[in-house]
Specification:
single chain, 476 residues, alpha+beta, 22% strand
């Protein structure tokens, strides 16, 4: 056996290299490269025992094929050792094809030393990644709380929670479900990168095992939504791993935050589950506080309008009473008095009263001070205003990052077009459905990225056909 002392510098260099990076994938690559260089092997690979847990199948150097993988041990042209992290086997480090000859006992000894240090480095990388994840989730929860408490409407608040949670969890969708009158739960808000399709309106029927857990305040974690018998919704086949987290505070269930991933995606890790559950708890508190703040502000607006109404009542009654007495007095007067002037004063007083009434009514018709400032909120406000004319609420669907991509000038033009289209739809006979779609991922005919607004209603068109679709688009 050769003297190991001349190879100690190479071992030290390999040991030091595995700890130079705190990112897990980079750390694993350093381990594989260091093992190959230390032993002179042509190929090296590190295969994870539980690849789903880390989201990594294996790390390898060039040239190692799937047929080269064999159990841990040693033959003349193969050497393998286990890497343990916190007394658990993390994975197996393999070496294949040493051009200088068969692997020696010294090679195995050096590889075991490297594997021990690799376990420490992997543990540190895991701790670092967990700390980074925790920091991102904490920052996300703080951003949601700040957004909700600075004045967002109810629909905007739910979308803010769903969208931020989807991004933090690296999920394919973030949806909010709320209890129905029938005892089930319905998706009321959906944030997706793709077309959300018919997610909104999907219902978990009463009696579902998942629903019973959620109503009891328990989170539900699913490995594959498409095959899990607890999942009963019509959209379950689209998704794989999923988290369903109750939005609950002080024993009150506000709703559920669901974060599904695409089929075939890696399951959520225990750390991700814990952080998402904590996020949902904080988001629920923020939603309750935001709702209470909006109630207080609405109460203040109503109180102010009540004061205006009382002032209007007193002013109108006083002036009309005085004017009436003036006219009665004029009627009793005989000729020779300045009847014409008195009648003129009465008319002027009535005109002034009418003006005061109009001013007061205009003040009562003004929107509250917390009118939505986001583009999404303004679209929802326009559809809500049209609901009073239509007798039902138009649906609104958003695709892409509408808040960050649509500039203020473009938003102004789109909102003006939306008002015209909704007004026209409210005047058409037979309208029972109105759909508003804003797509911030559209591509214009000239290839430029753009935004497209589409308004559809099923009323009777001028040509006698059913259904009208209006579309506007603009470059971003």
């Amino acid at each position: 056996m050769t003297d190991p002392v001349p190879r100690l510098p190479s071992l030290l260099e390999a040991v030091l290299s595995v700890g130079t990076d705190l990112e897990l994938r980079a750390t694993l690559q350093h381990i594989v490269d260091g093992a190959a260089e230390l032993t002179g092997a042509r190929c090296a690979a590190l295969a994870m025992v539980d690849p789903k847990h880390e989201g990594l199948m294996e790390i390898r150097t060039a040239g190692l094929s799937a047929t080269d993988r064999t159990p841990v041990g040693r033959t003349d042209d193969f050497l393998g050792v286990s890497i343990r992290v916190d007394d658990e086997v993390f994975g197996n480090l393999y070496l294949v094809d040493k051009p200088q000859g068969p692997f020696t006992d010294e090679d195995e000894q050096l590889l075991r030393v490297l594997a021990t240090q690799a376990g420490i480095a992997i543990g540190n990388a895991r701790l670092y990644e967990t700390a980074r994840q925790r920091e991102r989730w904490i920052e996300g929860a703080a951003a949601v709380t700040n957004a909700l408490l600075t004045g967002e409407a109810a629909a905007d608040a739910l979308m803010t929670v769903a969208e931020r949670a989807r991004i933090l969890a690296d999920a394919s969708a973030g949806v909010i479900l709320q209890p129905t009158d029938e005892g089930g739960m319905e998706i009321v808000t959906a944030s997706t990168l793709d077309d959300p399709g018919d997610l909104v309106g999907t219902v978990i029927e009463p009696g579902s095992p998942v629903l019973e857990q959620l109503l009891g305040g328990q989170p539900v974690f699913v490995e594959d939504s498409a095959t899990d018998p607890r999942m009963t919704t019509r959209v379950r086949h689209r998704f794989g791993p999923s988290m369903l987290l109750p939005l609950q505070t002080a024993g009150r269930l506000i709703g559920t935050l669901a974060l599904p991933r695409h089929r075939g995606a890696r399951p959520y890790t225990p750390v991700e589950r814990l952080l998402a559950t904590q996020f949902a708890s904080q988001a629920a508190v923020a939603l309750v506080l935001a709702d209470a703040r909006q109630h207080r502000e609405r109460l203040a607006v109503l109180e102010d309008r009540d004061r205006i109404a009382r002032d209007l009542h007193d002013l109108v009654v006083q002036r009309l009473f005085a004017t009436g007495m003036m006219l009665e007095s004029t009627q009793r007067r005989t000729g020779g008095e300045d009847v014409h002037d008195m009648l003129g004063r009465a008319v002027d007083e009535l005109r002034s009263t009418v003006q005061e009434v109009r001013t007061a009514i205009f003040a009562l018709q003004q929107p509250p001070a917390d009118a939505p400032t986001t583009f999404r909120g303004k679209v929802l406000r326009e559809t809500a205003a049209t609901a009073a004319l239509l007798g039902f609420q138009p649906s609104a669907r958003f695709t892409g990052a509408v808040e960050s991509r649509i500039t203020e000038p473009v938003a102004g033009h789109l909102l003006a077009a939306l008002r015209r289209a909704l007004t026209a739809a409210s005047r058409r006979p037979g309208v029972r459905r109105v759909e508003v779609t804003v797509d911030a991922t559209a591509v214009l005919p000239d290839g430029r990225p753009g935004v497209r607004l589409t308004v559809y209603d099923d009323g009777s068109a001028e040509a006698g056909t059913a259904g009208t679709t209006k579309t506007w688009q603009s470059p971003l």
